[in-house]
Amino acid sequence: MKVNIFQSPNYSIKNRPKKDIKFIVIHYTGMQSVRACIKRLTSIKSKVSTHYLIDRKGKIISMVDEKNTAWHAGRSKWKNFTNLNRHSIGIELVNKGHQFGYENFSKKQISKLILLCKFLIKKYKIKKSNILGHSDVAPLRKKDPGEKFPWYFLSKKKIGYWYNPSNKNIINHNMSKNDLRNIFFSNLYKIGYRYFDKKKSSQSDLKIIKVFQRRFRQNKVNGLIDYESLQISHYLASSPKY
Does the domain made of 4-156 have the CATH classification 3.40.80.10? Predict the structure, then answer.
């Protein structure tokens, strides 16, 4: 696996123990060109960086050494972890994103991502359930890598996790909207999502529901707790992986 080096100055100098690296967080760049991405990721003023950048031709660029903390996730939570930067490897995929013309990720890009993830998973013994999207850990701020990212395909390559439908059905079509919400968000909390109250609705609910759908129900991101979304959340929350 060929890796090019383009060093970013934006990282925490203190080395972190290998055992502290437990997650891979996948992003899209959300910018109009590779040149713009690299400029921002190497600008001292931007205060952002990533460990790896993969362009649309499949070129892998190392920007921060794995032993250092890159500044890619920002304010973030997952399960009992806060500030995912300290515990993760960040991977940016060149893609214009929702703001500039969201596009399918290229085959070469995903192929190289799979190679890189397999290398990192083996090196750091990272669990399948700890391969996350930026939006998973920062759902109120981020949409990336978005609904076009092939999570299901990656799960078939043993990268990331997907749900296995079971015969157990929790759907009661007479449930109130409040009951639907409480069960759905209790499931999300068990999976690992944060930034919400399990029993009290808020204006943040819509963003969090859409983040979940962009990951696990990509063909219909409507922000509604429908029965399909509820059932998927139940499959995941019932899995021993979580």
Answer: yes
